[in-house]
Amino acid sequence: MGYSGARGGLQAILAAEGLVRRLRDHAPAPWAPTAQVITRFRLAVDRVMGEAGLYDEGSAAAAFRQAEGDPLEASHLLRAYRSTLPRLAVGEPVDPDELLILRRIVPAFREPEGPQLLGRTTDYTGRLLEKPAGPPGENGQARTNGHDTNGHPAPGTPATNGTRAADGAHRRPRRFLDLLRELDLAVDHRDGSDPEPFDITRSPARPPAPRSAALAAMARAETGALVALWYRSILGPDGNLHEVTLGEVRHGRLPLRVRHPHTGNPVTIGEFRVTEAEAIEDLDGAEEDRARFDVGYGLCFGHNERKAIAMANLDIANRRFGATGPLEQLLLLTTDGLDSGGFLEHLKLPHYVTFRSMVERKQALQAAQRAGVEDVEARLPEPVGRVC
What we know:
alpha+beta; globular; about 10% strand; 4-stranded antiparallel beta sheet; 14 helices
């Protein structure tokens, strides 16, 4: 590996850690309460939960605060914390049609069955910087008034004017994909070939991998990496042509169910928010069904529409081109922010032994060239740890 034991730096390391703690814990501004981080930085908290693979807003907010706003470092902290938790039960499969809608848009159709719910978004407004004069609440506490971070009544809050009573009729609309299936315009991939979800937290996924492994890897991928890979795929440097339409985007709450340890019956123990997207692609390949569309799917923790949309489009691209190109390998092995970021961060550790070996090899090569020795490379010793 080319590493050496670094001696004499322990005091400097401890001093640097102490400086971080002092400046973080004793800053002029007060320490933001967890509730304030959740409500004021809700999209960052959702992103941290998704990339850590743990749905817990309080822990994600604490990690985000400890990481001083660095989402990748916060995901690292939360994923490390996740590894210490006992696995008490396994959640029961949840039908996405049970989603209690907080936001739903159908760009592919003007008047879909069910409402278009813009929800809490700035997608259709100008981006102008606002500088509020003061905090919205006193003592750092956010004003929620019994509502969640999306402006809807929080779970367990009594309904007002029949809002919750009408949820079943208006917040579980029919899917746009169902219309495509009725018209026989969508390729149906429900063949039972991937019945048991692949658990990437226990086994690494390697190509060729089932669809569930690719979807799980994308759900936990670093958002920026996934969006960049999607954009690369859309631009087509590999020669893959796409004609993508966004079918539907949803954000809402799903029930969390587990099996009761004594009765064996499914029991609802809570709710969690997810973002869901379906993408539609026109099939034009020689061996593809040109009379139908292919539909890709994406679902991730929290409110993260960029990731869900990229997932849905890459789901199609991986199915169409993953077996013949590098896409599947890139999805499974390069989009995890902690893997890629960790490898990058390790470059800041001492590597002087490795580099010294490279310098000596270069010097030996130059000396041999000056002496006129042929086949110099074959006579040189192997370098020490080129790749760490």
